[in-house]
Structures are given as structure tokens and as C-alpha cells.
Amino acid sequence: MKSESVSKIIGILKEHHAWLDESLPMIASENVTSILVREALISDFGHRYAEGKPFKRFYQGCRFIDELESFAIELAKKLFNAPHVDLRPVSGTVANLAAYYALAKHGDRMVALSVAHGGHISHAELSAAGVMGLRTYSFPFDEKKMNINVDEGIKLVKEIKPKLILFGASLFLFPHPVKEFREVADEVNAYIIYDAAHVLGLIAGKQFQDPLREGADVVTASHHKTFFGPQGGLIISKSEELGKKIEKAVFPGLVSNHHLHHLAGLAITLAEFLEFGEEYAKQTVANAKALAQALYDRGFNVLCPDLGFTESHQIAVDVRDLGGGAEVAETLERNNIIINKNLLPWDDIKNAKNPSGIRIGVQEITRLGMCESEMDYIAELFKKAVVDKKDVKDEVRELRKEFRKIKYTFVESDAYKYISLSEVLA
Ligand SMILES: *Cc1c(COP(=O)(O)O)cnc(C)c1O
Fold first, then answer.
1. Is 140 within a domain?
2. Which structural domain range is residue 196 located in?
3. Which residues line ligand 1 (CB under 6 A)?
């Protein structure tokens, strides 16, 4: 017997699943987990507490949690070739908070990208950076290259002497100049944080820059964007010594219990990346370039044509001449193509409701097994929907019928099928 409320809730979930099953999920910050990860998510780990570090807990009952967490840490150290990782931050924002807390103090300065230039809200004073009392300064930005202006940036760092220099972004087309800033960071005694929330999966698959080897002190990230884990955060440190500082900031600083079912799911994702990560990341970047080219060939104003459009999983398109980012994103949504509107460098943040651009991510459709030829077809669907104002829902539905399964894992399964435990057990 089910209550009306429960039926309603499950009904909504089922409708969501059914919609996704006929859609192209192309939000650049999302992904889909394998059935193995989902199995971990419904395990009893999700009911338990494990404050602190493996084998040094405050509660009893952690024997197997300790074993799993220390194994996950070993897998992560191997995957990222790093002496220290902390898998406990419960999100990318909490990972950033912990890095700020560990490496700076109230009133210190930080240089990072502004939100209009691709920086994440957690880099800004109105969000996590401000919560930690940091005073933020924006990197000078080269709009043509969609990247940090190195000479001007170094000048700024020399002038304001920040404690933190933060790389990484949410609109992130090309590797950031980490190497170029290492010397000036040492000169002014600043730490370099690299926020890999978006590109962790590409880094793990060795298809983007390697921030630790290029001079970053710590790398913060989310588990669930190009890295296809359950939602969560992590911090990689270049030394044990820095890692110790990070550990204290995470616990007892910012996290009490670290969502142990997500930890178990993350461990499985780490194993998936050690096996399939390189292949997946390669195809992801190839797909992004292919889609960008195909859109450009159909008249879309894709940014950075001279630079090959992108080196990541993302594409940015200026759609001012098509009604602006909000209108285009809504038109695509009505056609079951899910992307988001996005500020472009010349936009005023006050215009966030209808900015110039859209941001497209190909990592999730890559996970569904799509390759370059599908990117060409998807560009055609974009054009039909946005430029010709035709309805392409049926075409989207048909395309998705051929790409139902999650790839780059040990057990392929339906991507968006609703799995009902209560119905199976009833
Ligand atoms: C998404 C994102 C974050 C925050 O991650 P959450 O896991 O959503 O808290 C941090 N930094 C950047 C650059 C991001 O894009």
C-alpha cells in the first residue's frame, strides 16, 4: 500500500526519468553515473556516520567504511599521481571553502576570474570567497583567446600580493596559464589553487593540462561534471604537508560526516576512470571540437574559431543575433535539448537573465556512446530548432533510441531508466 503523497513523489521522479530518456542532456556541469555507482548509493553506507579519518573515527561501526575509504584514497592517489587526496568535501564549493580556509586567513587577497569571464560563484566575494573573508581581484582577461591575460595578470599579482591565485572556471574552453604564474606566486608568497570542478574527468583521462605538474599547490574539484561520479567534492595536494592542512580544514573545519554512500560510489568511479578514463576523455574532447565545427559550419557564432573553438568538453556560442541566451536555451528545451544560457565576457552581470551566450557540454552524451557523426547531426538539429524554428523533438527522440546505455564502465546499463525497489519487492 502506498500513500497518495508517495505516489505523487514517485510519479514526478518517473516523469523526470521518462523526459531525460527522450532528451539530449548537454549541461556542461552534469553527467550520469553507472549502475555500479548507483548500487553503492543505495547501500547502507548512506545511513552511517564516520567523522574524521579512516581508522581514527569518533564513532564505532566504521570497520568496513574505513577499509573502503582508505582503498578509495589509494585509487585516487594513483589516478591523479598525487601524494595526498581528501575525498570528504561534500561538494566542489565546500572543497573551495576548505582550500581557502586551509591556506589563507580573513582579509587576505585572492586573484581569480570574474563570473562574467567564467569564474564560479564560489570564487566571488558574494559567495564562498566572501564567506571566508577573502578580498577578491579579477584576472585581466583576453576575450579573443577566452583566457587569462598573462602579462597583465602577473603585473596585478606583483601589485596586490595576493595570498591565493585561483585558476579554473565554469566557462572553461582552454587550459589556464598555471606554469606562467608559478614564479610570481613564489615571489609574493602565494598559493596556487586550481579549481578543476569542470575538467577533473579530462585531467584524469590525461586530455587536459596537468595542474599539479604545472605548479598548482592544490587542486579542488567536484566529482560529477566531466568526472562521472556521484555528487561531491575532493581536494588533491602536491605534498603530504599541504595535505595535512587541507585535512584539518575539511574536518573538523567544514564537514562533519562525509556522505559515505557517495564515497562508495566515488570509489567505483575511480576504478572506472583507471580503466576507461583516457578513452572517454579523448572522445569527449573530440566530440566538443566536432560539434563546435559543425555548428560553426551552419552559421552559429561559436567562440574562438581561430583557436579550434575548444580544448575541453565545452563550447560557447554567442547567440545575440538569435534572440539571446535565454530565448535560445528555452527554445532548445522545448525540443528536448537541454543546455544553459551563459554570460559571455562582454556581458554585464546585471544581464544574467538574458546574457549573450549559451554553453554546451558534450561529456554526458559522450558517456552515452555518441561520437563525431552524431555531433554533426546534433548541430543540424540545433539549426532546425533555433534558426528554422522547426520542431525537432521527434528527431531527438529517435536519436536517443540508439544511445540508451552508459558506456565507459564495467557493466553497461540503461542510462535513465527508473529503477523501483518498492515495486520489485512489493
Ligand atoms: C560547479 C563548480 C563548482 C562548485 O561545485 P559544486 O559541486 O556544485 O559545489 C566550483 N567551481 C567551479 C569552477 C564550478 O564550475
1. yes
2. 38-273
3. 29, 91-93, 96, 120, 122, 168-170, 195, 197-198, 222, 233
